[in-house]
Specification:
single chain, 241 residues, alpha+beta, 434 Repressor (Amino-terminal Domain), 7-stranded antiparallel sheet, 12 helices, 51% helix, 15% strand
């Protein structure tokens, strides 16, 4: 990206009083992507350019104000601007009106009104927002959120019923763990990928049930040993198929 555009993006963002995290939430992308734009390491795509122009109250011409062909080539011109405090590698934890933002040496987690972003070793592992659902670069936007929401509501109603009728608030709350279990099971069948099944959640549910209801905390904890075995067998099967 042209260095002048990179500098202009920094100035416009700051003039609006937005942090890189806040802008990333508005656009439904990662903070790292914004940081790369402002260091002239990459260029926003067309949809993000349009959103930026609307957000800053300018036209696309005013936003770019340079040779469009040069901009779209993504070639940096000149020296990139130094990263500001928001783009530094310093660890931080922010919890406030703008959401929850945590960063350490290898991982970033950003949770806000616009979505959830998890970045591991510089790669965006999970992104959930208005643009869809992505996990390890794979589009999960087709996921049946409506069916999952209905099932969650049914579970909640059952929990209220057994709570008021039988005073089983605890361990009745364990019912909520069936939501990701059933949902992931259905997705595993649809996608024909066994590793999509939330097996660790199933193990946790069985362990908690045996502990709270049957008082068999030991040796039921050994169930957790089956988790790495499960994934080993699944990965072994995937390599053979």
């Amino acid at each position: 990206m042209n260095i002048e555009i990179a500098n202009r993006l920094v100035e416009m963002r700051k003039s609006k009083g937005l942090s890189q995290e806040a802008l990333a939430e508005e656009l439904g992308i990662s903070r790292q992507a914004v940081s790369k734009w402002e260091r002239a390491e990459s260029s926003p795509d067309t949809s993000n350019l349009i959103t930026l122009a609307k957000l800053y109250g300018v036209s696309l011409d005013e936003l770019l104000n340079t040779d469009q062909e040069q901009f779209e080539s993504g070639e940096p011109k000149g020296d990139a601007p130094e990263a500001d405090d928001e783009g530094s590698e310093k660890d931080y934890v922010y919890i406030g009106p703008k959401g929850i933002h945590v960063k350490d040496e290898d991982t970033e987690v950003h949770i806000g009104w616009k979505g959830i972003h998890v970045i591991e070793d510089g790669k965006e592992e999970v992104r959930i927002g208005k643009g869809g659902v992505w996990v390890d670069g794979e589009d999960y936007s087709h996921y049946n959120w409506k069916a999952d929401g209905i099932f969650s509501l049914v579970v909640f109603c059952i929990w209220l019923w057994i709570g008021f009728e039988y005073a089983l608030w605890h361990p009745g709350w364990l019912l909520f763990l069936t939501v990701p279990i059933i949902s992931s099971f259905v997705q595993a069948i649809k996608r024909k990928k066994a590793n999509s099944f939330a097996y660790p959640v199933l193990v946790a549910l069985v362990y908690l049930y045996l502990g709270f209801v049957e008082q068999i905390w030991h040796p039921s904890w050994l169930l957790f040993v089956t988790i790495p075995v499960w994934y080993y067998v699944i990965n072994l099967f995937n390599r053979k198929s």
